[in-house]
Design brief:
Blueprint lengths: L2 H11 L3 E3 L1 H9 L5 E4 L5 H13 L4 E3 L3 H8 L6 E4 L2 H12 L7
């Protein structure tokens, strides 16, 4: 498991993230998240919905990861959308995702 998944797992344990479409959408609408991660396997409608809502509110959004691995690192079956509620953690995860040398596995 790479460093990004490890950070997401620690975020879950520290209650610094929300997961699931409904919870993340509500957190975005309330401006409570600093980064949104949408799975690469998410439907086009889900990607567009979160892209539009995040861009309107100037919240960074990344299309990254796989449903299974995102869920596994959170102790769930699978997750399509994750929102990071801690600003420093969101910045660190965003940096890691933007570095092209990090693999998705």
């Amino acid at each position: 498991m790479n460093k990004i998944y490890q950070l997401l797992s620690l975020s879950q344990k520290g209650r610094n993230l929300v997961s699931g479409e409904f919870s993340v959408k509500q957190a975005v609408l309330d401006n409570q998240v600093f980064l949104v991660i949408v799975s690469t396997e998410a439907s086009n409608n889900t990607k567009k919905l979160f892209n539009d809502k995040c861009n309107y509110r100037h919240i960074p959004i990344k299309i990254w990861g796989r449903n299974e691995l995102l869920g596994k690192c959170l102790g769930k079956e699978y997750r399509v959308v994750i929102g990071i509620t801690n600003e420093k953690l969101a910045i660190k995860i965003l940096e890691l995702i933007e570095n092209k040398f990090i693999s998705d596995e």
